[in-house]
Design a protein that fits this description.
Length: 627
């Protein structure tokens, strides 16, 4: 999507074209190494998606390769199947049926394993992948009908329209085509609404849920997709070797797949190919070299791999692909500028300058006023939340009307963020009644709050910091899209995607940050990142907006612009609840103020009333509010 990635990609396409031209001339040995690289890279590409991009580490991927290989091996060689096979059907269909069986088995196993283990967080998930990686490996070796530890031989070659793919040279072409197709589909997926949701999984699941993403479902789908890719690789492998046994599906190999994904560049799809190439070539070399050096044979290359991975990741924590791509680009960019391709726009001027630019909102960006002015949007009654012995919220009641800016203030630790989390579904109250748009919300997840029209920002900014600002804002529009995974992979979502990006751009412009649309979000100042979060919330076209300290880190003019934006939103009928420490800001924008102290409401009223309230002045030690 970004121009930055264009040039290395072009280089890669050129190399692939060169490979295609040379393919018939290469020696047999080179061809079989290249074919294995493609088979490895198909698995590694799934792992890059799952581990590098969605943040779920798996050591057990080799087991899914095994499922794909064994399913087809069994189907193609079982005497029962042969006996039941209708004579009208050509036996060359068997391997293709084997592919379907492998995919079906992998889908079911991955779904069940995913449902059982993906809820785990931290180190438990990787540990579980080791456990089922081992289990499936031993299962392959112990099942009589799968040939035990000797395996299954005599597999037929693949045939496509009468053409036999018996030689590695022929099958290698198919393997590379499958790899390219997989990389293309995955790249498309990542450049879509669902791709943004996948990236959000790693960044923060709380944030993702608040954008309306069902993170549990999304994680399972990523997991299953990676498993299916592994399964396809296993099927190709089985029909290339024409023989399967448990060894290539062991935990050792599972770890190698992870090496490939991580060393190449865990966040970059092309890193999968780079990693598989490096590891495969290295393995070939080491298998020759180490026995000669050490005078003994054994699996010493595993030790060397481990050490190398440590060294590589010390120097290149993002894997090798990003720095290689940068270098390639530096090499090529002088030529590119000669042919008139401009560099990335580095506009970092004062964001306020663009504020005066007139913006004509596209029709879809002005949400219809579905609320009457003064209608109660959100009503919290006696919300209580305890953390151990600490009562963070003690029977807090607060209501929010449409067309109102309601400020929630109080000293640090008063319980403001806790209350935000309760009323946005991020945290559960121990007691109290919460209604949103007239619906009882007890026990509902954050994405249900989002569905009813609640948008929020976070006190501790939760953005995809390595991704462009515009993509972050577009993430907020997740719910308004319809295109699913398959549509995205096949690029059938382009119209919807263009509309989404258009809307995101509009919200970004409205917040004065259009000049930063293509910058990585993490490069902005913290104040600007807060504004990006507001734009992201607005992209969801909310009716209730919760802002946790939006003005923190903003300069004076930026605060004025923020106040103007909030006023405009209020006029459109939004209900805005804002936590803020800057009292000047609060007193100028708020219609009503609720004051929390030690978890309890000590006052509620207009700014004028609050400024006179003795309990409030006391809580603030008499100073702050007099300014
Ligand atoms: P505020 O946003 O007003 O500064 P918070 O709502 O963040 O305050 O915190 C209120 C109190 O609850 C603090 O004493 C804080 O330490 C405590 N607290 C907040 N979240 C948790 C948690 N997840 N576990 C334990 N204590 C918490
Ligand atoms: Mg707070």
């Amino acid at each position: 999507m970004s121009r930055v990635a264009m040039t290395p990609r072009k280089l890669t396409v050129l190399s692939l074209a060169a490979l295609a031209v040379c393919w018939p001339l290469l020696p047999d040995f080179t061809v079989s190494v290249l074919a294995s690289i493609a088979l490895y890279a198909i698995v590694a590409a799934g792992l890059v998606l799952m581990t590098g991009i969605a943040g779920m580490t798996s050591f057990g991927q080799a087991a899914f390769v095994g499922l794909g290989a064994y399913a087809s091996a069994w189907l193609c060689t079982s005497p029962h199947i042969a006996a039941a096979w209708p004579p009208v059907l050509p036996p060359t269909l068997l391997p293709w049926l084997g592919l379907l069986l492998g995919l079906a088995v992998t889908l079911s196993v991955a779904w069940v394993l995913g449902a059982a283990t993906l809820r785990l967080s931290g180190h438990y998930l990787p540990l579980c992948t080791i456990a089922w990686g081992l289990s499936l490996y031993f299962l392959f070796g112990n099942l009589e009908f799968l040939g035990g530890h000797t395996g299954i031989g005599g597999l037929p070659p693949l045939t496509i329209m009468g053409l036999s793919l018996a030689s590695p040279r022929a099958l290698g072409v198919l393997a590379w085509l499958v790899l390219m197709l997989a990389l293309w589909a995955l790249a498309n997926l990542l450049d879509s609404r669902e791709g943004r949701a996948i990236r959000a999984l790693k960044s923060s699941r709380v944030m993702a849920e608040s954008m309306g993403i069902d993170t549990a479902r999304q994680r399972i789908r990523v997991f299953v997709l990676a498993a299916l890719l592994a399964s396809i690789s296993g099927w190709l492998y089985a029909h290339m070797q024409r023989f399967v046994n448990p060894t290539p599906f062991s935990l050792n190999i599972g770890i190698e797949y992870l090496f490939m994904a991580v060393v190449g560049g865990s966040g970059h799809l092309w890193g999968a190919l780079l990693g598989s190439t490096l590891i495969t070539l290295l393995k070939e070399q080491l298998q020759d070299l180490l026995p000669r050096l050490l005078g003994a044979s054994g699996n010493f290359e595993v030790v060397v791999f481990g050490l190398l991975m440590l060294i590589v990741l010390q120097g290149f924590p993002q894997g090798l692909w990003p720095s290689l791509a940068r270098r390639g680009q530096r090499l090529v960019s002088p030529f590119m500028s000669l042919v008139g391709q401009p560099g990335a726009s580095g506009a970092t001027g004062e964001t306020l300058d663009e504020r005066n630019v007139e913006i004509n909102p596209p029709a879809s960006t002005s949400p219809p006023l579905t609320t009457d002015p003064g209608e109660t949007l959100l009503d919290a009654r006696e919300m209580t939340r305890q953390f151990g012995g600490l009562i963070a919220n003690d029977k807090v009641s607060l209501s929010l009307q449409s067309g109102e800016i309601h400020a929630l203030i109080g000293p640090n630790g008063a319980g403001k963020s806790t209350f935000f989390n309760l009323i946005s579904g991020v945290d559960r109250a121990d007691d109290g009644v919460l209604t949103l748009m007239g619906q009882a919300m007890a026990g509902k997840p954050a994405r249900e709050f989002a569905r009813l029209g609640l948008g929020r920002t976070f006190q501790h900014v939760k953005l995809l910091s390595a991704r462009p600002v515009l993509e972050n804002v577009a993430l907020g529009a997740y719910r308004s899209g319809r295109a699913g995974w398959l549509q995205a992979m096949l690029r059938l979502d382009r119209r919807e995607e263009a509309a989404t990006l258009h809307r995101a751009r509009f919200q970004l412009a409205r917040c004065g940050l259009q000049a930063h649309a293509d910058d990585a979000a993490g490069e902005l100042s913290l104040g600007q990142q807060r504004i990006v979060e507001i734009a992201r919330a607005l992209a969801g076209e909310p009716r209730v907006l919760l802002l946790d300290e939006p003005a923190a880190g903003l300069r004076h003019l930026e605060k004025r612009a923020l106040a103007a934006l909030l006023n405009q939103l209020r006029q459109q009928g939004l209900g805005i609840l804002v936590v803020e420490h800057d009292m000047d800001f609060v007193m100028t924008i708020a219609d009503r103020i609720t004051v929390l102290n030690f978890g309890a409401v000590i006052a509620s009223g207009t700014p004028a009333q609050i400024q006179q309230d003795p309990a409030v002045l006391d809580a603030y030690l008499g100073g702050v509010l007099d300014e």
